[in-house]
Structure to design on (132 residues):
């Protein structure tokens, strides 16, 4: 849905990185959220979903954030501060980032038709990440 006015919200991303390799993190998913509860819920739902497959240490990290860290995250988001949640499973570090943003009318991903240039976006300058 396009509007004529900029709208406050949160840009959420999920990144993974092999902690033993020297390669940059890989973007795994993103979400445009329009409220702090929607943004932290995205991380919470994901952590609850993957927690049964995590090793005991990673599961403890996940549940610690769900029970204690989530409140601090929500408060920080309401103060317009960026937040990061990280869980390490074996050699893989999974990081969720949530940043306050202003969504411009043409940047809305929910529009029926995006402009032709929308397919040229590459996160952090990585041309291989551009949708093809």
């Amino acid at each position: 849905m396009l509007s004529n006015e900029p709208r406050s919200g949160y840009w959420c991303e999920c990144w993974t990185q092999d902690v033993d390799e020297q390669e940059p993190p890989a973007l795994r998913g993103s979400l445009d959220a329009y409220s702090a509860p929607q943004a932290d819920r995205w991380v919470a739902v994901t952590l609850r979903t993957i927690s049964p497959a995590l090793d005991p240490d990673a599961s403890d990290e996940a549940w610690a954030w769900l029970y204690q860290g989530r409140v601090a995250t929500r408060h920080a988001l309401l103060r317009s501060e960026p937040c990061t949640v990280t869980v390490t499973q074996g050699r893989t570090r999974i990081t969720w980032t949530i940043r306050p943003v202003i969504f411009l009318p043409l940047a809305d991903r929910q529009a029926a038709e995006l402009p032709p240039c929308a397919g040229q976006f590459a996160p952090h300058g990585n041309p291989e990440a551009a949708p093809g």
